[in-house]
Amino acid sequence: MKKSELIERVSKKVDILTKKQIETIIDMIFDCMIETLSRGEKIEIRGFANFKVKQRPERIARNPKTGEQIKVPTQRAINFKMSKALKEALNK
Predict the structure, then answer these.
(1) Residues 32-84 pLDDT 10s
(2) Which Gene Ontology cellular component terms are annotated (predicted)?
(3) What does residue 15 show for φ and ψ, rounded to 5 degrees?
(4) Virtual torsion, Cα 66, 69, 73, 77, nearest 10 deg
(5) What is residue 17's DSSP assignment?
(6) What is the pTM of this model?
(7) Helix, strand or coil for residue 43?
(8) What are phi and psi of 62, to 5 degrees?
(9) Element (H, E) at 35
(10) What is the largest CA-CA distance in the chain?
(11) DSSP string over 61-90
(12) Is the sign of the CA dihedral 36, 40, 46, 47 positive or negative?
């Protein structure tokens, strides 16, 4: 689903807001989520999922084309864990 499709679906369910207002709200939600995760905090949306930042350690990897070993620096990645309710809805 694209962001534009999300806006379209929400606008069909909410008659009192314009598409522009809905887009602004969705952008604000995403901005809040990005800000929270960038601080290393966890996001818990009950009935949907948990998002948390994990630190990936530095490692040595291999370039598959040349076979050369390269050093991959420490990175932060998002861990997504779906809720039990979401898992059950997907597996009906």
Answers:
(1) 999 999 999 999 999 999 999 999 999 999 999 999 999 999 999 999 999 99
(2) cytosol
(3) -80, -20
(4) 60
(5) S
(6) 0.77
(7) strand
(8) -125, 130
(9) helix 19-38
(10) 59
(11) EE-TTT--EEEEPPEEEEEEEE-HHHHHHH
(12) positive
* Residue 66 one-letter amino acid: T
Q: Which residues pair with 55 in a beta bridge?
A: 76
- CA separation for the pair 72, 80 (Å, rounded): 22
- Three-state SS at 29: helix
What pLDDT is recorded for position 92?
Answer: 87
Tell me the residue length of the chain: 92
Q: Rounded to the nearest 10 degrees, what angle do helices 3-13 and 19-38 cross at?
A: 130
CA distance 57 to 51: 19
| Tokens coding 55 | 């630190």
